[in-house]
Amino acid sequence: MNNQNPIFIPGPTNIPEVLRKAVDMPTIDHRSPVFGQILHPALDGVKKVLKTTSGEVFVFPSTGTGGWETAITNTLSPGDKVLAARNGMFSHRWIDMCQRHGLEVEVVTCEWGEGIPADTFEDILSKDRDHKIRAVLATHNETATGVRSDIAAVRRALDAANHPALLLVDGVSSIGCYDFRMDEWGVDVAVTGSQKGFMLPPGLAIVGFSPKALEAVESAKLPRTFFDIRDMAKGYKNNAYPYTPPVGLLNGLKTSTEMLLGEGLENVFARHHRIAEGVRKAVHAWGMSLCAKSPDLYSDSVSAIRTPEGFDANRIVSHALNTYDMAFGTGLGDVAGKVFRIGHLGSLTDAMALSGLSVAEMVMADLGLPVELGSGVAAAQEHYRSSAAQARKQAA
Amino acid sequence: MNNQNPIFIPGPTNIPEVLRKAVDMPTIDHRSPVFGQILHPALDGVKKVLKTTSGEVFVFPSTGTGGWETAITNTLSPGDKVLAARNGMFSHRWIDMCQRHGLEVEVVTCEWGEGIPADTFEDILSKDRDHKIRAVLATHNETATGVRSDIAAVRRALDAANHPALLLVDGVSSIGCYDFRMDEWGVDVAVTGSQKGFMLPPGLAIVGFSPKALEAVESAKLPRTFFDIRDMAKGYKNNAYPYTPPVGLLNGLKTSTEMLLGEGLENVFARHHRIAEGVRKAVHAWGMSLCAKSPDLYSDSVSAIRTPEGFDANRIVSHALNTYDMAFGTGLGDVAGKVFRIGHLGSLTDAMALSGLSVAEMVMADLGLPVELGSGVAAAQEHYRSSAAQARKQAA
Amino acid sequence: MNNQNPIFIPGPTNIPEVLRKAVDMPTIDHRSPVFGQILHPALDGVKKVLKTTSGEVFVFPSTGTGGWETAITNTLSPGDKVLAARNGMFSHRWIDMCQRHGLEVEVVTCEWGEGIPADTFEDILSKDRDHKIRAVLATHNETATGVRSDIAAVRRALDAANHPALLLVDGVSSIGCYDFRMDEWGVDVAVTGSQKGFMLPPGLAIVGFSPKALEAVESAKLPRTFFDIRDMAKGYKNNAYPYTPPVGLLNGLKTSTEMLLGEGLENVFARHHRIAEGVRKAVHAWGMSLCAKSPDLYSDSVSAIRTPEGFDANRIVSHALNTYDMAFGTGLGDVAGKVFRIGHLGSLTDAMALSGLSVAEMVMADLGLPVELGSGVAAAQEHYRSSAAQARKQAA
Amino acid sequence: MNNQNPIFIPGPTNIPEVLRKAVDMPTIDHRSPVFGQILHPALDGVKKVLKTTSGEVFVFPSTGTGGWETAITNTLSPGDKVLAARNGMFSHRWIDMCQRHGLEVEVVTCEWGEGIPADTFEDILSKDRDHKIRAVLATHNETATGVRSDIAAVRRALDAANHPALLLVDGVSSIGCYDFRMDEWGVDVAVTGSQKGFMLPPGLAIVGFSPKALEAVESAKLPRTFFDIRDMAKGYKNNAYPYTPPVGLLNGLKTSTEMLLGEGLENVFARHHRIAEGVRKAVHAWGMSLCAKSPDLYSDSVSAIRTPEGFDANRIVSHALNTYDMAFGTGLGDVAGKVFRIGHLGSLTDAMALSGLSVAEMVMADLGLPVELGSGVAAAQEHYRSSAAQARKQAA
């Protein structure tokens, strides 16, 4: 790879120049006041991105997976029951983590491509009169299938059942990309990472805890030290960190939140939606369909595109890489070989998106799929053209 | 501009990551032996790129314009006569420089879009029995018109006329992009810069002098100090420089020549030709034509594309920048408003080229030109697909 | 802080230019073969630095603290007993982590400034006939006190007691700085991070597991997912990672091991020793003493310097930062206010070390301590001068 | 060289992190409005640094030598007479350039170490009743000898003689380091470069022209194109440049002037003076003396230090480089082998300065000079300590 092409994996994203420079720092004394001047603006910025005023944010040198572990080990105890839907690889993995940590998981199995079934959740929660279910797990954006679930609906299910379970949400590939409302939706723990909507290199697990989740921490008996938010909270109060902080990435996070909030979150979301719509119009022009079952589930972060029966979708990804130095995402788990994915999260221009679509067309043509060269590009161009003026106005 | 889109001006080019890092150096002591370990490999590398074994290379902290001034002030004296064709903005400017330096220029005026008329040169040189013409100036690649002239033919004209004039060649936007043979073509001074085929930031004038040109230096009476190659030559012998050297750019030049020679010059040229062909196929698919009069004149560095009569071509460039953050080149001089230019020199992938063509299509459609969305892209895709396997083999 | 002074905290260290550039990478597809070409050389390089041929190396997006958690959760079960000495802040914290994970810790309390008492360990292990002690924890370099413990002696204690306990070693601030012999010393888990001897930004926990430790993994019942080495091992086999890998830091680790192994580990250790000796000679010239009780305990990574009774050593650190923009380390835990620390690990030149000593002298003079300006500098200069020729030879 | 030590050559200087990042830019379209947003603030910033409101600033991709050539070729004609003192290598070279450009130079020969003799200038100018002398050349800071000349006195000499000659001043190693007052001193052309007080990599010639100098441009007959300020002026008006601009360096210049003006010029000068004084106190503590004849001539940019009779001063420079990786300046021209130089311009901390002095002491001791280790360091420490509080206040 020569590093010149944009990448279209569903994260890590293309890193804007200013963020690369923010991360690339000489060593500072992380016990000096300079550190606090990086840490606190980063935490405050994340809160605004999460749309929370009552929650607290903690940032670990880790990844989204570490964020999940932070969420469960700080709020739950061995043997606790949790409710979760398995509708893709990432919800699957979080369930697996819970089981490995000795939690009992009530799994609602969905077809991959579906969203979280809030109705089913409401049924289950309503029947759980003893409130044995201590937490509901929800994956906001299933990166494997390109499905956006309705977290507000999950909250309504909890409320309708009058159930006190905590709501733990994986927002790894949604936060910073499309709307996420921690306070309004009553999210108790929100989990994300540095390498998606924040457009940074991987290396940070970013979690938000609601006051209710914070209350659960003392009684949570799952063992933890590295991921214990109590040590983090204690450190932050003193402009410090419980161990060596990843200063460069935190400085990047500070700068990233400045960029996102400077642009305006609603503009960031509109920008993602516009780019994503162009990709989807191209997919439809190719005569293909998305893994996501219906338009309300379409993710503005990533599109998983179904390939024809009998065709190995992984060939698209490997051919794109080997022949055109371009990275798309393979299908994972149940949809391995059945879909390929185009990540369209983070900072992407029309030109970048069109370059990805152009290459996808060449690849599919090379592999004998019935895709007309230029057809998807034209559909996306039409969309980008017609919405360009509005996009410019928002960016200004 | 958000810096994420590739640029399509005909230089400076997109800078590969490895070259940005090579240039971005902490200060070293330029009087220490470390400097020689940067300077000499850079000079040797440039010689190989120029295909000269008998010439000497000098590198100035300057630009191609400074390279022209180096060429004439080190070989000519006030009142000397030179022969030159004016077939574009850059040949025009070099002629202007000669006149401002008190040289008499016999100008052969050509239509912009034509190459250097070697036949006319032969006529003029043959008639110059007293050898009053001391030098012939030739612009290898007219960046303004996208025209490649035939330098070998100019050499043949000189030889046919049995004329001793020096052959001074502007190879600013050809060297490192397509074939240039200093020794074989009897080029006496070759001029280029850092920001074109070498893919570096601007800031270096790079010149090659043949033994015959070196002989002319002592008798050349045009005043010069900064551009005097005698000071340079004396410095180089001692691993030194006559003034403060641009160490980072020289380190970049060393690395750039390693890249070009590592890839193989013929592969570099084939790569440029392949990308350029894709662009030209798109242009033809749009129903448009190039400024260059005939295919033998097509430049593999830049294409100047004629727009319909009555349409201001500059609108394409400004609309592309304002609406899609993409930079193309405007028309200059005689063809201002009549052409826009797509630079395709330096390190470009298929995906990058296609992103430029996609945007060009949107821009032209936005401005009401009768261009079908996706049409040029499809033509370029077809070309890139069919030649991708061969390109891969060469890159390996 | 203006970032121009070297830092003298005991890690993170000053980052060499080449490592900053290795870490600062554009995003690549971490599921492509390119990733394996970064990952495997990094792992192989670390093995050589650990001096192990039989062990396996795992690298997590985390810190040394995460490395400790990896060590215990992958080898132990709730209620297991471990043996550890508390002789500084970092051994203290590791003990605390064990207790929070439900392990029973037999703590040997030492005065801070002492090394691990191998004799006492041998007594305890000999009396543990039922082998209830499942692991011995040892902190090779106590960063808080500047004490190097004798790991070979701990191994001899285990062997003399014929005890099968695992030997888990914190080598965070020793590995890559002074001699560490995983195989020869029978270390079962070795723990370090990116930001000390490897001279990288923080963000990686690096652990080596012996075959015996690997055997213990399946029966280890402490819950873990993020830090489960089985997922790592499975990923590595496929050039993959169980979650998003910190590619830039891994690329830095690859480059760092190339640097260390290229220089030669024994030369790296000699270099650290030489710089450290200069610092110690300065300390003695100031009439001060080290926290480490005896010369055999002196650490080549960091020196903790005792200040006079009644003087708050933290004032040195804050005055140095506020007045001279220079970062030293404060005393931690039991020696807070009683020592200040000069980190001398990683890539340091004589000039850098002398700048630290110069500033330390000014600071102490400013604060009224009876230190003669230039005295420590002169002692260090004498040492560096007399050993410079030898150092050069090793570097060559 | 491992790049970790600060350098003590009298320019290029150590480059602050923020300036390295400002220079390291991806390519932009230099014909787009973005370019004007870099260019004009850079030019305006330079004007403020030059303390001129009536002059115009021009910036060339070149060096200080190119700045000299710009000064003379834009204001003078072949055969014109100029007055200059030769009191060091750089004044010598400028004189040489004038002669090579066909100017008649009345040279006042001074001992190296002396300043410009304003009295002698006044005599000569007074006798030049026909005003044949068209320009007076003055080197503000003789980098070779560490001598600061009194430009205000040269202006007074011109005024006392009621002489209309232009005053052309080489401020390459003074501007941005110590006080320079273009308007107040009636400087007609001020010349500097990017790599001294502006702390950038080399590659820019920066010149200021007074209204009077601008008037002289049309009648100046020395041939020039690359350095013709008329083309520059015309370009600037259109946010453009007469050839490819060195965008990254110009962006660095913009940022550099923001840094200097943000700190406050008087604070910048006080900072240079303070660091320089520490170096001079060290020199005197070593029992050595400066090349500059008297304290009023001491340069705050660079100190040239006389070594004992019979000792080859170059050995200091080569030994420092070979043994301690540290770069000092050699003696040039008349004082070659008789002095070595410590550059102390640009961004330097106390710690950096002390590291240079420490190494100088080791080097001199190694070479058998009677220098007591720590003696110069102690003298400088005393100075830095006593002035640290005041320095902090200014920096705040």
TrEMBL record, chains A, B, C, D:
<dbReference type="Pfam" id="PF00266">
    <property type="entry name" value="Aminotran_5"/>
</dbReference>
<comment type="similarity">
    <text>Belongs to the class-V pyridoxal-phosphate-dependent aminotransferase family.</text>
</comment>
<dbReference type="InterPro" id="IPR015424">
    <property type="entry name" value="PyrdxlP-dep_Trfase"/>
</dbReference>
<dbReference type="InterPro" id="IPR015421">
    <property type="entry name" value="PyrdxlP-dep_Trfase_major"/>
</dbReference>
<dbReference type="InterPro" id="IPR054863">
    <property type="entry name" value="AspGlyoxATase"/>
</dbReference>
<dbReference type="GO" id="GO:0004760">
    <property type="term" value="F:L-serine-pyruvate transaminase activity"/>
</dbReference>
<dbReference type="InterPro" id="IPR020578">
    <property type="entry name" value="Aminotrans_V_PyrdxlP_BS"/>
</dbReference>
<feature type="domain" description="Aminotransferase class V">
    <location>
        <begin position="31"/>
        <end position="326"/>
    </location>
</feature>
<keyword id="KW-0032">Aminotransferase</keyword>
<keyword id="KW-0663">Pyridoxal phosphate</keyword>
<dbReference type="GO" id="GO:0008453">
    <property type="term" value="F:alanine-glyoxylate transaminase activity"/>
</dbReference>
<dbReference type="InterPro" id="IPR024169">
    <property type="entry name" value="SP_NH2Trfase/AEP_transaminase"/>
</dbReference>
<feature type="binding site">
    <location>
        <position position="341"/>
    </location>
    <ligand>
        <name>substrate</name>
    </ligand>
</feature>
<dbReference type="GO" id="GO:0019265">
    <property type="term" value="P:glycine biosynthetic process, by transamination of glyoxylate"/>
</dbReference>
<keyword id="KW-0808">Transferase</keyword>
<dbReference type="InterPro" id="IPR015422">
    <property type="entry name" value="PyrdxlP-dep_Trfase_small"/>
</dbReference>
<feature type="modified residue" description="N6-(pyridoxal phosphate)lysine">
    <location>
        <position position="196"/>
    </location>
</feature>
<protein>
    <submittedName>
        <fullName>Serine--glyoxylate aminotransferase</fullName>
    </submittedName>
</protein>
<dbReference type="InterPro" id="IPR000192">
    <property type="entry name" value="Aminotrans_V_dom"/>
</dbReference>
